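The aim of this short unit is practical: by the end, you should be able to scan a pair of folded records and say something sensible about each. We start with the first protein, listed as its amino acid sequence and then its structure tokens.
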Amino acid sequence: MAWITPEEFYSKIKSQGLNSVVLITGEEPYLIRQCLEQIESQYVNPDMKDFNFTVYFSGEAEMDQVRDNVETLPTFAPLRIVFLKEAHELSDHDWEVLEPVLQNPVTSTLFVITALRIDKRKKYFKSLNETATCVEFKKLYDNQIPSWIQYICHLEGLQISETANHLIHKMVGSHLLEIESEILKLKDYISPRNRIEAEDVTQVVSKAREESVFQWTEAVASKDRIKAFELLASLLDQGQSEVGIVILMARHVRLLLKIKKGQELGYSGPRLAQYVQVPPYFMSHYLKQASLWSVSGLEKALLTLNETDKALKTSPISAPLWLENMVLKMTPAQI
């Protein structure tokens, strides 16, 4: 079974056309959760849920038990549904235990496996690739996030202003679960209103997020090394993801680069704000920072961020050291 697109996958869910084994991968838990909810809605009979629907977490379940459940006939229903979440935590031995039901799927069971990532070099992947319906929800591009913020608001019966949307993106980042969490807080805060304004976001979204996103990225973009180091230490103390920190900074640098390129095209004022896709309310801050950089300087900064991202994921050296090195490269010492 070839890998299919998310759109094709949702179509198969609606038509109940999934193979007996399903593999869902991707690094955005919100998209995986949403997908599982759709599968449950389409395939699980609420009246027989206690008998024919089981959810396992890879770090807690015994794979012998999971396989036995997959091989068990459904009770008074045509199909048993088994979810195995977070399969990236499984050992090679765990996969060996599951191998029989991967190579020869049980047609009376829908066996759904989710994982943040999958090792395509392993033997088990060959079985999945041949027998399963496979889909990957790839990392969202930065310019897709505002639409998702609007979508999540729509699901909650809310409207949101353009400025408030941008503020949530800026202050929370690109992780949809965190965005959803903040939108739910905002929903409670603005009730009985149903439209989120910028002032609401400023009041509700935590000061810690504001500091980690606004102040730190702006300190680096303004080439204020001392302040950048101080805020980096605070951000790490808060337990922020090191990779997430790099992602936030890369988004900020790309925005400044787009401003520079827009200026090269002769854009200014509202036209430049429209080109950059930033509310005019925020442009003065970005223009001031962009004036401190050349296009080549911003492009070098993106290379530094890319190198740091790779190092954080592969190097045995302490993550804070890589981040400090990144700040050193991006903020020349003041003389």
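Turning to the second protein, read its sequence before its tokens, just as you did above.
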Amino acid sequence: MSKLIYLDNSATTFPKPEEVYRFMDEFYRNHGVNPGRSGFDAAIETEEMVTETRKLLTSLFNGDDPDRLTFSYNASDTLNMLLQGLSEKGDHVVTTMLEHNSVLRPLYHLEMDGTINVTHVPFDSHGYIDPDDIKKAIKKNTKMVVVNHSSNVIGTIQPLTEIGKICKDAGVYFVVDSSQSAGAIPIDMKAMGIDALAFTGHKCLMGPTGIGGSYVMDGVPVKGTRFGGTGVRSAVKTHLEAFPYRLECGTLNLVGVAGLNAGVKWVLDQGMENLHKQEMALWDKLRLGIQSIPGVVTYCAEDSKNQNPVLCFNVNGFEAGDVGTMLDVDFDIACRTGLHCAPKVHELLNTVDIHGAVRLSIGPFNTEDHINMAIEAVKDVASIKNQ
């Protein structure tokens, strides 16, 4: 493992900061009891950590009420709750061709069941959504617009503020998938006009897998779609409508919340802007190096403006999967190949028929040496077809 050059940070950041590992272990050993269910000291202290984490994330997203910050397994879990909880029969939903299957599949199932109709807005040749295309797609029965803040395939960061204003003017709800941006790019829900935000903890927030959640603005009528224990008002037959209980039931992933707590604090201590600047400097070096190799094609990677450190490419004459295997076996480089759970992105990139692309994604623990070795590795792979 020590030799591994890990360039799959869009899947999950790895490694995590030492502070995250340490706090998860220490907290769970000393406070691994059920919060909110009992009045003894350890349970109270555990609930205090959960509340602190709600407050940290509420502040990070510029929300007002920490109770409206709810926890789930991940962004996919959250998006299922938000999209199903907002949809009613006859609604129309606008989304984009940049979306991950965590948005595409819940919407498809709702459409297949006859609940909603969906419009998918394309992105341009540079990888960006034109807000005017969102505006044109909105109909009288449009309930919400769902947009991926930053693509997990091409890394482009979308103009949320402009889209949010269009949604507000049209009186439709604006739902944002921040899986690739929360912890990397500032998110101000008020300034951006976001009504409901889905996030995951194991990517740029530097937490563990199995923890994510949402922030839902006051007045957004998300219905609960799962029911069970809350630890309070147990005699009430129906699940509680108040937040956070509306979108939470049963015992929380406590060790996950602890890891997320430590991850958010680490990001804030390092400085989100500093981390992003460092990663984008490496990305630019990687981009220029890869693009200089004969026979290599990159996608939507013209410059570093409004971009996250994600680079997708193909080597002419090779299947993406074969390139990934060679990078792994011959060079100890971990990457991701295929359609990246975002098939409509690859439709517009014209990479479906060649089974997707190779993705390299940079994280805070990557170095210039990693980038140099990745460039040389791709150069060696590409040279095989030129021999």
